[in-house]
User: Fold these one by one.
Assistant:
Number 1:
Amino acid sequence: MNPTGFTEASVTVGLAPWALPGTLSLPKGTGPFPAVVLVQGSGPSDRDETFGPNRPFRDLAWGLASAGVAVLRYDKRTLVYGAQMAADTSITVREETMDDAIAAIALLRRTPGVDSTRVFLAGHSLGAYLAPRIAAQVPGQLAGIAMLEAPSTPLVHLVLVQEQYLVSLQGSPSPQVEQQQAALEAQVSLAESPSLSPSTPASELPLDTPASYWLDLRTYDPLTVAAALRIPMFFSQGGRDYQVPPSQLPPWQTALAGHADVAFRTYAAMDHLLLDGSGPATPAEYSLPGHVDARLVADLAAWITGS
C-alpha cells in the first residue's frame, strides 16, 4: 500500500430519505481510472466493514487505490437508519443492499477522474451473493463483478451450516446448546416451508428476520443469474472460511464452466474477513488485529486493471 498515492474524499450515496455517507479513494495522477464499488456482507456494517480491530474494506480500498483503482465504500442503510429498517416488516435485500449499491454505481460512473466504462462491483459475503442480481439490474453499467467469499447455496441454509460448525467446536454440546440448535433448525425449516407467508412472525424465523426477506430470496438463484451475465467475474475463496466454507465454491465453478472470462482464486490461510490465520477458524480470531491477504488485494487489482 502507498498512502501517498491516492486521496480520499467524503461523498454521499443515494438520496433522502436514505442518503448514506461514504468515502471515495481516488488515485493521484492522470485518469480516468478504473473504479470499484465495495458492497458489504450481512448486518449493519460501516463503510470499512469494521469488525473488532479489523477493517477489511479499508484495507481493500487503500490497497486498490494504491494500485491505480478508484474505490467507493459507504455505510450500510441498516447502520445509518437502523431504527427505521428494523421497523420495516416487509424488508428485502433490495432495501438492505441492492438499491444503495445501484446508487453507488451511478455515483461512480459520473465521478470526475473515473472511467465510466470500467466501473466494477466487488461484493463480500451477502454482497457477493447479490452481485449477479445487482449486475442484472444495471445492464451495460458494470465492467465486471468480483465475488469475495460468495455463498452458492440459499442463505437460509447457510445459517444452519454456520451454526453446526460452531457447535462442532464445542465437542459435546450442552443440553442448552442442543436446544438452541433445535430451535434454529425449526426456524430454518419454516423459512424453507411452502407454508411460509408474509404474515409469519419474524420471531419464528432465522435471525429474527421478516418473512418478506426469505420469500424474496426464494425467487433468486445466483448461479443461474450469474451464468446469464456476459461480463468478467472474479471469485475469492478462503480455505479457513467457516461462514462461507470452501464447499461453496465448486457449484460456482460448475455453473460458470462455459463462461468466457471467470477467475477463481483460493487462499488457503484466509478466513471470512479476508484475513490470514492458522488452525481451525473460530469467531475469536476476528478480535485479533490483522489485514486483508495481500495476495487477494494484488490479484483483485490486477484483475480490475487488466495488468
Note: The mean pLDDT is 95.
Number 2:
Amino acid sequence: MTRLFRLLFWAATIFAVTMALWPLATPMPTAALSDKWQHMIAFFTLTVLAGPAYPRQSLRTIALAMILLGLAIEVAQWALPMLNRDGSGLDWLADGAATLVGLVVVGTMRQVFRHPAAEPRER
C-alpha cells in the first residue's frame, strides 16, 4: 500500500507544482474557485497523501516539507515574471493552514490504524 500512496503523492505533487507554475495568459476568471481554496485543497491533499506514503516520517517532518514546498512555489511565482503570477504570503498562509488540518487527519489515521512502521524505533 505504501508504494501506491507514494505514487499518488508524487503524481499529486507534480500536478500541483505544474499548475502553480504554469504561465497564465490571462488573469483567472472571478467565477472560478478562489485561489486560496485551490491552495488549501492542494496542500490538504498532499499532506494527507504524504502520511501513508511516508509512514516512518514524523508529522513535523511532513509539515516542514509541505511548508517549504509552499514557500518554494510562492518564491518561484514572485521571481519569475514570465509566469504572469504573483507570489503571495497569504497563499503561503493558506498552504500552511491546510497542511495543519491535513496533519490532524494524518495523526488521527496513524492513531486509529497504528501502522507498525509509524511506531518509534526502540533504542
Note: The CA atoms of residues 59 and 87 lie 26 Å apart.
Number 3:
Amino acid sequence: MFVWAPRAWLPGGWRDNVLLEIAADGCWAAVAVGVGADQAPAGTERLTGSLLPGLVDAHSHAFQRAFAGAAERRESASDDFWSWRDRMYGVALRIGPAELRAVAAQLYVELLRGGYTHVCEFHYLQRDRDGSDYADPLAMSWALADAAADAGIGLTILPVLYERAGFAAPALRDEQRRFRASAVDVFEAARRIGAAARPLVNAGLAIHSLRGADAASIESLRGLAENVAGPIHIHVAEQTAEVDDCLHATGCRPIEWLAKGGPLDARWQLVHATHATPAEIGAVAASGAGIVLCPSTEANLGDGLADLPRWLAAGVPIAIGSDSQATRDWCEELRLLEYGQRLTLRRRNIAAAPEQGVASTAERLWSRVLDGSAAASGLPSWGLMKGSRADALVVDADGDGLLGVVPERVLDALVFSSPQAPWRDVMVAGRWVLRGGRHAASTAIADRCREAMAAIG
C-alpha cells in the first residue's frame, strides 16, 4: 500500500512530494522524497493535506477520564493537588473492568482526535474494589488492552510499583487499597502483558513515586529489569510538598536521589519533573533519561511550571502526556507549555532557538516531543521513517485555525491558533482509524461510556 502527500514532516523537518509505502506488518517500508503525484505507483492514495507523524501520549491515567471536570468547585477554605487526589480516589474505588474498558475506549477515541496514536498507561488501578486480587490479576490491564483495540490506538501498559502512602507510612491508606503492588507483582504483570503479544500492545514498568515505594523495592525492581529494554516511568518532583518530604526523609531532593542512586539510564522517564534544580537537570541529561511533561494537568492541579528553557538547552529527551485527561489534544498541551513560560518570564517564543536554526517555537517543541516518543513508549523508533510504525495525521487545511495559512506556518498555526479540529484523517499501523474526522465506532463507544459513567456515579 502506498500513500502520497504534498508535504510531510520527516526527520529533519518538512519535505515536499513524499511517497510512503506501508508494509504488511503495519510499518513504513520505504519513504521517498521528491516524487511527484503523477509518478506514484498505481493505486497510491493521494492525500491533499500535509502529513505529520502521530504522537505518543506518554502519561495517561485512563480511569481519570471519568473524573475530568468533576473537581472544579471549591467547597472549603483551600484546594490543592492533595485534596483533588482524595476526591479522585472515590472514582478509583468504584470503577470495575467493564466500566474501565468503556471509559478508556472513549478516552482513546478522543486522544486519536487530539493527534495521539499511541498511549502509555501509568496503570496502578490493579486490584478489585475491596483490595483483593481478581481471579486474573491482570483483569484491569486487559480492560485497557480491550479498550485500545476498540478504539484502534497503540498502547503501552506500565504496571506500577505502589506500596505505601508516604515516606513515613508503612503501607497504603485504605482508600488506596486497589493500588497495592510489589516489585515482583509489576514485573510479572509486564512479562505476562508482553507474552500475550496483543496487536499494538506492549509493556514497561513504573514506580508510583519515591514516596510510594521504598528504596529496597525500587532496587529490587531495578534488579529484575536489568536485562529488560522497556521503559521505566516514575512520578517525580511534581509538588513542592513532595520535594520537602523527600528532603526530610532522605536528605535529598527526589531527582537528586534518583541521580545519586545510579538507577537512571535511557529507559527512565521522569514524569512531571516540575521542581528541578539546574544541577538536577544536568544530572538527568548526563544519565540519558527523559522527562514527561503534562502541561494541562500540571496547570489544573496547581503543580507549578517546569524549567522548560533549561530542559531544552540540556538536550534531555522530552515527551508529553494527557495525565488526568483535563485535555486530550497535543496541540493544546504544547500551547500551554509555551504560554506558561511566557506568563512567567514575560517574553514571547521562549522555546524558539534561532541560534540553532529553529525560529519556530512550535516546530522546536514538536520536534522534541516527537523525538522523545519512542523511548517513552518502548518502541524501537517513531516517526515517518522506514521501520517505524505507520502512524500518521492528515492536516485539514480547511479547518478554522488553518484556513489560508501558508504551508511553512502550518505547525505554528496548529499549536497557536484555535479553535480547530485539525486532523482530517488519522492512521495507526497502516490503517485509517479516523476518516473525515470521524471514528467508525464512536457512537457505540460513546453510548457505553455514558452507561459506565452513570454506573460509577
Note: The chain has a mean pLDDT of 96.
